[in-house]
Design a protein that fits this description.
Layout: H1 2-7, E1 31-40, E2 50-55, E3 61-66, E4 70-76, E5 83-88, E6 95-100, E7 104-109, E8 115-121, E9 132-137, E10 143-148, E11 157-161, E12 175-179, E13 187-192, E14 199-204, E15 208-213, H2 219-222, E16 223-228, E17 233-240, E18 243-248, E19 253-257, E20 265-267, E21 283-289, E22 298-305, E23 308-317, E24 320-328, E25 334-340, E26 345-350, E27 354-360, H3 361-364
Parallel strand pairs: 1-24
Antiparallel strand pairs: 1-27, 2-3, 3-4, 5-6, 6-7, 7-8, 9-10, 10-11, 11-12, 13-14, 14-15, 15-16, 17-18, 18-19, 19-20, 21-22, 22-23, 23-24, 25-26, 26-27
């Protein structure tokens, strides 16, 4: 283990610029999101506006291009274990990273038919890899961090430098180093700061959110903040330069200042029932989006009723949640979402194996209230990709 922490001393990263704080006091104007595109996640096959990577339960990953329509580009079939994360390079839409539960992260070049151009894994202990539960890439596409499941009495955060990858170094170990004293259970989420490439936030089922300064030479010195959510952390991200959001496995949203003793705002599952017809037990939280694309940050939530699957965007208004968009046309329980900021598209994927793309109505048709519309037909698909934690 000493080799891992000692090798972290080779990290050499610099501070970046800071981002501006977002105004959380804006008036919330209610609108609607309606379906813009929909495609079944499957193996079936214009310059794209953006691209989507969707992981399947058979360990493959399908890449779609989005322009005037949604079309399949390529299927990546090199993975041999459940996929725990899919991310495009922060600096190139032609490079896709996938992390798998068997402890391996690969980079594929979509210009070369999805060829694996780099591999990152931990083989420091007799070739035994640690099972990954999460990963992230720094904003400058230089550093990769991988969070492991609790294994051998420890939970690790491992680091690799993208410039020194396995394909170039043959069988040499390319692991920079790791931390293993800051979490006591599975590291479920990692999030690099959006502009400071040396700052990393981590979350775990042990209830802790930790913030690290990776320029420091030891784990003790690197751990700058440890926040106790008193729950099991599912996802987290940066809300402003010095504040975080996190969602838990009990469908709770917490907002934190990085040096706060407790969350400055907490919204439980009962808060998701914003209309009189909502049953809190049928409501669920998908993801929080710290973006101003729809006017201010929002939380995507859903509920299952006898009439169908509801989906809506909720804005945080001081001490309450308020609907800012009703999403019209959703037909599945949604399990993940992503925002393409340039186009203002919201991408959702769910238990029916269907990708939906939602746009504000004024971007797709005139003389209509704010909504999102679809152009692609429905279809039954494969199950959503494997997750190591329940929703």
């Amino acid at each position: 283990m000493s080799k891992i922490i000692e090798s972290l001393k080779r990290l050499n990263v610099e501070n970046g610029a800071t981002s501006t704080e977002q105004d959380n006091e804006k008036t919330c104007e209610k609108g609607e999101l309606t379906l813009a595109m929909e495609e079944t996640v499957s193996h079936d096959q214009n310059e794209p506006e953006f691209r989507i990577g969707a992981a399947l339960s058979d360990y493959s990953c399908v890449i779609y291009s989005v322009g005037e329509s949604l079309s399949r580009m390529i299927t990546l079939e090199h993975n041999r274990a459940p996929i725990v994360g899919v991310k495009f390079s922060p600096t190139s839409r032609n490079v896709l990273y996938t992390a798998t539960n068997d402890g391996q992260i690969t980079a594929c070049d979509l210009r070369a038919k999805g060829k694996v151009v780099a591999e990152f894994k931990d083989n420091t202990e007799d070739g035994k890899t640690k099972p990954l539960a999460s990963f992230d890439i720094s904003c400058d596409d230089r550093l990769i961090a991988g969070g492991t499941e609790h294994t051998g009495g420890d939970a690790f955060i491992l680091f690799w430098d993208v410039r020194y990858n396995g394909s170039k170094m043959e069988n040499r170990n390319n692991l920079l180093g790791g931390y293993w004293e800051s979490h006591m259970d599975d590291v479920t989420c990692l999030s690099f700061h959006p502009v400071k490439r040396d700052v990393l936030a981590s979350g775990s089922t042990d209830g802790l959110m930790n913030i690290f300064d990776l320029t420091q030479l030891s784990e003790d010195l690197a751990l700058t903040c440890s926040l106790n959510t008193e729950s099991s952390v599912d996802r987290l991200g940066w809300l402003t330069d010095d504040s975080l959001w996190c969602t838990t496995h009990t469908h709770t949203l917490q907002l934190w200042e990085c040096e706060g003793a407790s969350a400055y705002a907490t919204f439980t599952r009962s808060h998701l029932a914003v209309s009189q017809n909502d049953d809190p037990d049928s409501c669920y939280l998908v993801r929080f989006h710290a973006t101003n694309v729809f006017g201010q940050p929002f939380m995507l939530t859903g509920s299952s009723t006898v009439k169908g699957e509801n989906l809506r965007c909720l804005s945080v208004m001081k001490n309450r949640l308020e609907t800012c968009y009703e999403i019209v046309g959703n037909k599945q329980i949604v399990r993940d979402s992503w925002i393409h900021e340039k186009s203002g598209c919201l991408v959702t994927v769910g238990e029916s194996g269907v990708i939906n793309i939602w746009r504000q109505a004024e971007a797709t048709q005139q003389n209509s209230s704010r909504q999102l519309l679809t152009k692609i037909s429905n279809g039954k698909g494969r199950d959503r990709h494997h997750r190591t934690k329940p929703y």
